[in-house]
Structures are given as C-alpha cells and as structure tokens.
Design goal:
Layout (H helix, E strand, L loop, with lengths): L4 E5 L6 H9 L4 E4 H7 L6 H10 L12 H10 L1 H25 L5 E4 L14 E6 L2 H12 L3 H10 L3 H7 L2 E4 L4 H22 L2
Parallel strand pairs: 1-3, 1-4, 2-3, 4-5
Length: 203
C-alpha cells in the first residue's frame, strides 16, 4: 500500500491527463476519479440500478447503459436531484478510490480529481498538485479537443474553482503553457521530490 498520496487537479483543458500519464511512465499508480465515476454507474452496477429506480427506465439506454444525456437534463432542471445524485455517487467513488490506493504498490499514488478542492477530497491527500494554464488557453484547448462551443466551455470553467483559488490552495504547481519537454522536466523534478517525501512518510 502507498502511504503517500498526491492529489492532482486543474481546470478543464489544463492537461491533467497528460501530466498524470507522465507520472505513470515513472511507474506511479494513478487513481482517476473520472474513470471510477464511470465505473460506479456502469451497466449492471448498484449505482445505475438506484438511478433507474429513482428516475425511471428512460435513464437507461436500450442496451442497459446509463443514458447520460437524459440524466444531465434531469439534474439540470431539478437541482434537488443533483444533490440526491451526488449523495449517492460521491461515497461510492470515494470508497473505490481508497480501495485502489490501498492496493497500490508504487512508492506514492497520484489521485487525479478534477474537483479536488470543490468536493473536499484534498482532505484525503498529503500534497496537492495543480496543473495551471491561462483561462484563454483553457478555452482554446478545450474547444479544439472536445469540438464544443466557446459558451459551453466557459460555463464549465465558471462552475469550477477559479484559477487563483486553486493556486492559493496548491502545494505544488505545474505550468503547462509551454511545450512537452518543459512539462516532462517539471514532472521529473516533482517525481523525485515525492519519492523523498514518501520515504520520510514511511521510514
């Protein structure tokens, strides 16, 4: 089990996945909240069954998967349903994350959580790492990547912690406004730092 956990976060389009994968190349186990969030509502899961019981069969596709568009529509128009959904899924996600951390064999673990501070999950980690880019670059990269409108991206940015709040709460920051070589050297420096911190944590 890894006894040292680094919480990796950043706004949409900041490059969290790219950074996480560079740590993975160093042999570090990743625990990804987005992947786990999909698993807890996968076909046949208890999470999906409870969503179907609550909102009806239209929440499932003909193949038995979650109808994400229908669920998004439901919680957009009914804020109390969003609260119900969060109360259902957040504990499931948290439990599974802790199970994966307990099973990890690397010296430390990177926990990738887009809403690390917003959902209070920074309490679970020893160190927080923010991937930082300018809002202008966030917009540009996300529009190019997801092929969505500027308005859609701006709405997501507005729903997340603002840049300064994230930076104020970060123990470490990676500047992802340059090229991949600059990114790799920052990750390597932090990797060595985290190895030392993990060693101190587990003498």
């Amino acid at each position: 089990m890894a006894n040292f956990i680094v919480g990796l976060t950043g706004g949409i389009g900041s490059g969290k996945t790219t950074v996480a994968n560079l740590f993975a190349e160093q042999g570090i186990v990743l625990v990804d909240a987005d992947i786990i969030a999909r698993e807890v509502v996968a076909k046949g899961s208890d999470g999906l069954r409870q969503i179907g019981d609550k909102f009806g069969p239209q929440m499932l596709t003909p193949e038995g998967h979650l109808n994400r568009a229908a669920l998004r529509e439901q919680i957009f128009h009914h804020p109390q349903d969003r609260e119900w959904l969060n109360a259902l899924l957040h504990p499931m996600i948290r439990t599974r994350m802790l199970q994966q951390i307990a099973a990890a064999s690397s010296p430390y673990v990177i926990m990738v959580v887009p809403l690390l501070f917003e959902n209070g999950l920074d309490k679970l980690v020893h160190r927080t790492l923010v991937v930082d880019i300018s809002p202008k670059l966030q917009l540009q990269r996300t529009i190019e990547r997801d092929k969505v409108s500027k308005e859609q991206v701006q709405n997501i940015i507005n729903s997340q912690s603002d840049r300064q709040t994230r930076l104020d709460k970060a123990d470490d920051v990676i500047d992802n406004q340059g090229d991949v070589t600059a990114l790799q050297s920052q990750v390597l420096a932090l990797h060595n730092k985290y190895l030392q911190l993990a060693e101190r944590q587990n003498p």
